[in-house]
Amino acid sequence: MKIYSKDKYIFTKGLDEYFSGVYKSYKFILHFFKEVVKKPFHHRELVNQCFEVGLKSLVLISLTGFIVGIVFTKQSRPSLEEFGAASWLPSLIGIALVKAMGPLVTGLICAGKVGSSIGAELGSMRVTEQIEAMEVSAINPFKYLVVTRILATTIMIPILTLYCSCVGLYGSYLNVHSVETSSIVAYYQNAFSTIRFLDIFVSVTKSIVFGFTIGVVGCYKGFNASQGTRGVGKAANQAVVLSMFLIFVEEYVIVQVSNWIQYF
Amino acid sequence: MDKLKTQHIINKDESVILINGLYMSFEDLEVLKGIDFSLYKGENVAVLGRSGSGKSVLIKIIVGLLKPDRGEVVVLNQHIDKLGGKELDALRLRIGFSFQNSALYDSMDVYNNLAFPLTMNVKHLKKNEIRSAVEEVAEAVGLKDKLRQMPSDLSGGQRKRIGIARTLIMKPEIMLYDEPTSGLDPITSAEIIELINEVQQEFNTSSIIITHDLTCAKNTGNRIAILLDGKFLKIGSFKEVFDTSDEEVRGFFNYNFIQ
Lengths: 264, 259
Known about the structure:
The complex is a heterodimer.
Chain A: H1 13-36, H2 43-53, H3 58-82, H4 89-127, H5 130-136, H6 141-179, H7 184-193, H8 197-223, H9 228-263
Helix pairs in contact in A: 2-6, 3-4, 3-6, 4-6, 4-7, 4-8, 4-9, 6-7, 6-8, 8-9
Chain B: H1 2-7, E1 11-26, E2 29-41, E3 44-49, H2 55-62, E4 70-75, E5 78-79, H3 85-92, E6 95-98, H4 110-121, H5 127-140, H6 156-168, E7 174-178, H7 186-202, E8 206-211, H8 214-220, E9 223-228, E10 231-236, H9 238-242, H10 247-258
Parallel strand pairs in B: 3-8, 3-9, 6-7, 7-8
Antiparallel strand pairs in B: 1-2, 1-4, 4-5, 9-10
Helix pairs in contact in B: 4-5, 4-6, 6-7
């Protein structure tokens, strides 16, 4: 009995697969929103995943944020000095880190570290039938594995972003302090003086969107992995590449929307 | 092993699994072509067949992991295709499924692998109740001393045993074994065969054992079913099946012996 014929495609094989992938991811996200409000809530697994995403990324985020702060300050100083505006350095770094660099750097680092880890873990669970083993034990694997991971990335990445911005500012302060002696309180006051509520709101919104994206892409790729160990590698790789690409697209869209909001 | 098997009482008036006209295909590959089958209460049926003949697909349909194209599957008096989420989950708790590669959760130690189905499905259990249930099934498979080890530290045979123990913790009425002896040496295979018979005796289960292994089929199955080219060619006792004049069935046995 034939169900599908290999020769029958609506467009071409590639286009059909692309549109079917888009539709499947839409269904996957819809499934997440349906499951997230349903009982039971796996609190312990959620805390465990928050630990995996948050605490285990802390060292990497600290180092990256710190270095970004130093490098950005070093590179901005000569240009500002040319215009006699070196005193604006803390404000510039503050706005740049809180509005753009913090969410973007954290998003990209977590897409690499957390996204690949989720993709590989769920992918290997799929190909070794661990997900099926949960299903036959009457445990909802989507609820237990996917919902908890997406929630964990959505909760923890905004926190990591704020932390990354603060560490970046501290790196920037150390660089400024090495050139001209200044107090840390005055530096932070200066840095935050030009930051408005909208800037923080946009930064947090961005990081929530980035966190959700990393979780959804990692889980989707891992949960639907196939073709044995090759599929696991492919899932991890695609999770990183796709979430990084989507982070840039989302960054662009959110910046456009926030600029539009400013005018009104 | 044979002694254990003959002592068991099979109730031929009560079917725990009833399959009528089952068809299943993947894209343009037809795997099952009209399967009719009954598993009686207390009985072990060994399903023999070549790779890709649809043996594993059959038990995945029985447990609701795959949906057939058509046909009727009644498990413990419930039509599996008509069951929704919670009803299907309730039925699955009455079925144990032992996977070919054991499918133990890599991130958990043996204790937590065994406790996991219990803690997720039975509410308000005390820690000591969980512990005693875990120790009981670990004892039943003879691996009580391995509870704090990770699955990666276990041998193939031990992993199979823990996989079986994980299903036993929910006290299933039906056991489905997918290739229980594949990849094991003859001595470990014999131990797993013995365990399957012990499970039938002690837990009073009815089982389907999917296998390539004639020794396993002979020593665990009260009946043997030969699945070739998507259909059951012969179902009966080992002697009936082995002595059949059907050329295809004989061909399968001859091929096994030559190998």
